[in-house]
Each structure stands twice: as C-alpha cells, then as structure tokens.
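Notes to self after the Tuesday call (sharing in case useful).
The group wants a holo model before anyone commits to mutagenesis around the pocket. I volunteered. Ligand is uracil. Logging inputs and output together so the record is complete.
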Amino acid sequence: MIRPAELIERKRDGGELSAAELTELVLGFARGEVPDYQMAAFLMAVHFRGLSAAETFVLTDAMIASGETIDLSGALGRKAVDKHSTGGVGDKTSLAVGPIVAACGVPFGKMSGRGLGHTGGTLDKLESIPGFRVELTTEEFVAQVRQVGLAIVGQSADLVPADKQLYALRDVTATVDNVSLIAASIMSKKLAAGAEAIVLDVKVGDGAFMKTEVAARELANAMIELGRRAGREVVCLLTDMDQPLGRAVGNALEIREAVETIRGQGPPDFTELVLDGSAQLLALSDLGIGLEEARSRAETVVRDGTALAAYERWIEAQGGDPSVSALEQAPAVRPVVAERAGFVTRLGALDVGLAALSLGAGRRTKADEIDHAVGVVCLRKRGDRVEAGEALAELHARSEESASAALAAVAGAYELAEEAPPPRPVVLDVVR
Ligand code: URA
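Result:
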C-alpha cells in the first residue's frame, strides 16, 4: 500500500517514482481514495521537478487503465488513423481533414473536446449544425466509422476518466502548463481511442498553449516518445498560431469555412494545413503510399467533389443538415475598418480569440452557453495589403451593442506598416 505523502515528498525532492507507485497513486486518485489535496500537492511537485520519460509513460498508462479503451483498428479490421490539435483560434482542421481522409478510403474516427477560454472546441463547432448529434455510444461510433468511414464524437465519459479528474485539479492549481502532464493528458486519450497512427498538430504562438517553437518541440518530442512506447506511429506538425487559422473564428462561421475549404475555396493558410495534415494521415495509413502521392490524392478528392460528398454523408449520419444555408447567421454584422493604408504585420490570435469569446462564441467557465452564430471573420491576414477605409475584419454579433464592445479589441489585434512582413509558413516543421 503506498503512502501518498511519501511519494509527494520524493517527487518534491527531485526523486523518481517506481511504475508500481505512480500507477497506484493515479488509480487510487481515480477511485477517490487519494484526496484532491494530496494529488494537488503531487501535481505541483511534478510541475517543479518534472517527470522522466519513463514516469510520463507510466502516468499515461495508468490514466488509460482508469477507464475503458477502444480497439478501433481491431473492430474495423483496418488501420485507423486519428488527429489531434493542441488548440488554437480558428482551428477547424478536423472538420475538413476528416472528410478528405475518408474520401480517400481511410477510416477516420475521432473523439473531440469542447472549447474553454479563447480556444474553440470541435464539438461546439459541430453543434452549430442543426440536428447534429455529438453523443454517440461507443458501439454507434465504431459502427459509423465502419459504415460511413468517418465519425467525430464527444469523448466517452468511460474513456480515461482520470484525465477529467486530473485536468480539473490542474486547472485550479496552476499546474496545467507542464510538458509531461500535457503530453500524458493528450496521449492517454488518443491511445485509449484506439488509432494506430496519429497526427498531432502542435500549435505555436500567442494564441496557443505553447508560446515558442522550443516549447512546442519539447511537447512534440514527449508525445512522439509516448506513442513509440505504446507501439503507435506519431507525427507532429508544428504550426503557426501567432495569427488565427484561416479567416473565420466562431462556431457556425468555422463550419462554413471548413465546407468552403472542402470545396477547394478555402483561405490559403487553412487549405495548406488541411492538405498537409490529410497527406500525413494518408501516408501513415494502410494505403501504402508516400507523402507525395498522399498529397495528390487529398487534392484530387477536393477537386472532384468526393470530399464534399463524404462531408455530407458524415453530417447526415450524425443527424445533421449538411447544407450551409441551414447554419444560423448572426443578426448584426459590422466591419472593422483600417484607419491607415499598409501591410498587416501582426494579427494577434489571442486578441481575436478573446474578442470572439466576448461576442459569445466561447465559454469562460464550463457552464457557459455558446452562441453558435457569432464570431469574427479576419478578411485581412498577416502580409495582406489594405487601403485606409477598407475592412480588416467583420464582427458577427448578437446585437449592435456587443459588436461595439468587441470592435476595439479586433482593431487592436491588427498592426499595419509600410513594409510587408517576411512570409511565415503555416506548417513550421514536421517532427517524427
Ligand atoms: N489538452 C489536453 O487534452 N490536455 C492538456 O493537458 C492540455 C491540452
């Protein structure tokens, strides 16, 4: 029988825990036998002292063992692929990547989360589609991936319950931003959901968890190592989150933009990330093709409409109306106008995310209701030229008053100068 105080003390002093000790601590906490105050102290000790690679793997494994797991690849008799993003502003990548990958004949089953704070959640975006059901049973989820080739659903409560408990505690004890804890949290959910190959999109920039490329690379390496130890293939894209991804930020607005992108009419940065992410997934799949061929197939299904057909089949399978005209539109649309001419040198992702939050597109606390129609459309992005009096962005608001309140924040997200900034690609690096 472990004594939690002894383990806290050892970690506080920089020591290492055995696999048996750490497993018992995590499972004891998940069963309610280790109280919150001891787990909080342990998390703070980890925050200061870190976990070794071996400890991080044991933590991940114990978190997985706290609940049920899905053998998606086994159930399909195919190699299933999955993706995950560490979260950002305007990140609707899964909504376009899923249909593209499915249209190329690779099963894509994903469990997603909700947004909190300035970052949006895929489930919230999907719920702006009238009728769409995000809650499927595990059996329904697997059956849909088998029959339709694609399902995106809410995380089952039975999958990695320890993560929910640990995350809630980390959230209120200032222990979220530790690389080992983040890596274990993300990878426990991905590994438990059963995909054999996983593409991780690690966002870097002011709108992301990881503010610098160095920190993002550290997280990427920790997650790749966890995948390797679990026998799964993992590729990490390090991607730009210094400005919002694409133009649309806000739930229904992002669905609209994802559909435009699946039709081949999306914004350049988002299109690039979608095609690159899709190609990485296809190259890891059981199609047995290289990256170049994978990219070409992703482009083909966008061009010939197969990806759009896959999107429509998927949305209908989950009870939704795939037509973009069914999406709710905000009653008040107001432009944010450039006061001077110049090139956009900065478009702060965090500023835009917070403005969208203030319009009602996100939630400050878990209990908040989301307004699916509202948000921000960034008509001009970094590097674009604008003339004085032209619109930089559009606010989609519930009322004129809430639009007025968000106006200064979005205007303040933009910086203009005479000279164009150096180009910065959306995919900064690929780590394997
Ligand atoms: N996303 C997660 O799922 N977990 C973390 O700890 C951080 C981001």
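Two things stood out.
Residues 86, 167, 176, 181-182, 185-186 surround uracil (CB under 6 Å).
The mean pLDDT is 96.
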